[in-house]
Amino acid sequence: MSWALARPEKPAADLRSALIEPGIGEAIYDLACRIYPICRSITGPGVRETLGALGLHLPLEVREVPTGTAAFDWTIPPEWAIRGAYVRNVTGEKVVDFADNNLHVVGYSRPVRTVLPLAELKRHIHTLPEQPDLIPYRTAYYSEQWGFCMTHRQLEALSDGLYEVVVDTSLDSGSLSYGEYLHQGETDEEFLFSAHICHPSLANDNCSGLALLAVLAERLSRLRTRYSYRFLFAPGTIGAIAWLAANEAGVERIRHGLVVSCLGDGGGPTYKKSRRGNTAIDHVMTHVLRHAANEPKILDFFPYGYDERQYCSPGFNLPVGLLQRSQFGTFPEYHTSADDLNFIRPEHLGDSYRMIAAAIEVVERDWLPLNVAPKCEPQLGRRGLYEAVGGGSDGPVRSMAFLWILNLADGAHSLLDIAERADLPFAVMADAAALLRERGLLVRNGNGDAHKTVGQEPATASAEPFAALANRGPAAGDWRVD
Ligand code: ZN
To answer: Ligand 1: distance of its center to the CA of 180 in Å?
Structure first.
């Protein structure tokens, strides 16, 4: 494999500044606002329109999977389109109208034109009695149903009598659409990012995830990276299943993966581990979240949630976790009309983005350092490293990082391992290690298997003088053997 020889065009430390620009949270929020009004479902024009909006930020490939195509145990359903829907009382007043809110119609409602008494109409109406001012979000993808969602107050205001019901939808042979973008890195090993694109007018779940990934992809596309980064914008469940069915042969390239949703609210952060529970991404995200927040939630895998269910199904068992702020289902706005553009904030979107950028920095910059002067402490002053520590406020942290790295750089501990032991952010360690290497105190462990590390710095020096140390190889029981 040639990747250990590859050298990024820019110094790796520049990755951080290239990815994280001022105003990044606002940029994500603006894009979320652009796609929020579109009525999406698992198929149909709303998904394509959303992919079109995201495609203004990155060269997105839009794929169409025809109705009836088999995907493992599933079949691509008929394509759903909606032109309008309402319920009108005897005076001609519309008591509920899809034109007012996309959530008013149950997703995948079959077409209907009829007149019904209130008692019968009520069987097709969904409300939230506990949250009487909110409209619930409901779907009926795989059943022949129709229905309306409204506030409980709206329902209570309906008087007895007949109602005219019009659901102007179609369910025809068509296709399921998803969008995909691959940023090619120095290697074919991939970091997969996946977000569901099927929810109508819900901001946190999941305009936040779609917008964040599009902005991230746009920035990554200008950089040279070691990993390749794949971005997938697919309808929940059936989209991920269709993608896996079409790409089964290539999934072994996926070294790390994150499903993202609900990235714009003020809660969390929450990370749900991959099914394996000890993969590199699990360690990376645990580290990143612990340094990004006071009380992050780190959850073991469970088989419900978003598309990590498909990536982590036993036949794939991929190293894919789920990143959220508040966990789905735990906040009162979840799957209601209150999950709107006021519920997500640019500062929270920016925070989520910075966590993901930090994770990318770990996988791009982690390597196995070897101390070339391991007998007693090396003399730092002679190498200008006391000056480097300097009198700045980060001086003590820097010098602590030097001490930890020099002590644990035995060729068996990665920088992430050392950052964990020292309880310091990875970025501090990576910058300190870069300086130590520049001053000739560290080399890359030439013996370690690059593919067992999270990432690997390009080789610039031989580990020959300390071959005995290097021969120890990766630490026994190391999580990276996954
Ligand atoms: Zn949802």
So the answer is: 21
CATH (domain of 450): 1.10.10.10
Structure tokens at 241: 């299943």
Residues 153 and 194 in one domain: no
**Rounded mean pLDDT, 80-89:** 98
Compute, in angstroms, the gap from residue 261 CA to the centroid of ligand 1: 8
Cα of 58 from ligand 1 centre, angstroms: 25
- Give residue 204 CA to ligand 1 midpoint distance, Å: 9
For the chain, what is the domain count? 3
Query: Domain of 442?
Result: 367-481
- What's the farthest any 2 CA atoms get from each other in the chain? 92
Least-confidence region, from 114-123, 326-335, 461-470:
461-470
Q: What is the pLDDT of residue 114?
A: 98
- pLDDT tens-digit map of 368-413: 999 999 999 999 888 888 765 555 667 788 889 999 999 999 999 9
> Is residue 2 a part of any domain in this protein?
no
The pLDDT tens digits for 408-427 are 999 999 999 999 999 999 99
Ligand 1 centre distance from Cα of residue 306 (Å): 8
**Which of 317, 347, 364 corresponds to the end of one domain?**
364
* CA dist., res. 232 & res. 178, Å (int): 7
Q: Is 444 found in the same domain as 415?
A: yes
Q: How far is the CA of 259 from the centre of ligand 1 (A)?
A: 13
Where does residue 82 fall: left (phi above 0), alpha (psi -120 to 50 degrees), or beta otherwise?
Answer: beta
Sign of CA dihedral 23, 25, 26, 32: positive
DSSP state letter for 134: -
147 shares its domain with 180? no
Q: Is residue 9 part of a domain?
A: no
* CA 205 to ligand 1 center in whole angstroms: 5
Judgement on whether residues 223 and 300 belong to the same structural domain of the protein: yes
**Distance between Cα 202 and ligand 1 center (Å):** 8
pTM > 0.85: yes
Interior/surface letters 439-463, b for 16+ CB within 10 angstroms, e for the rest: eebbbbbbbbebebbbbbbebeeeb
Q: Which letter does DSSP use for residue 171 in this model?
A: E
Indicate which CATH number applies to the domain containing 347.
3.40.630.10
**10 is a domain residue:** no
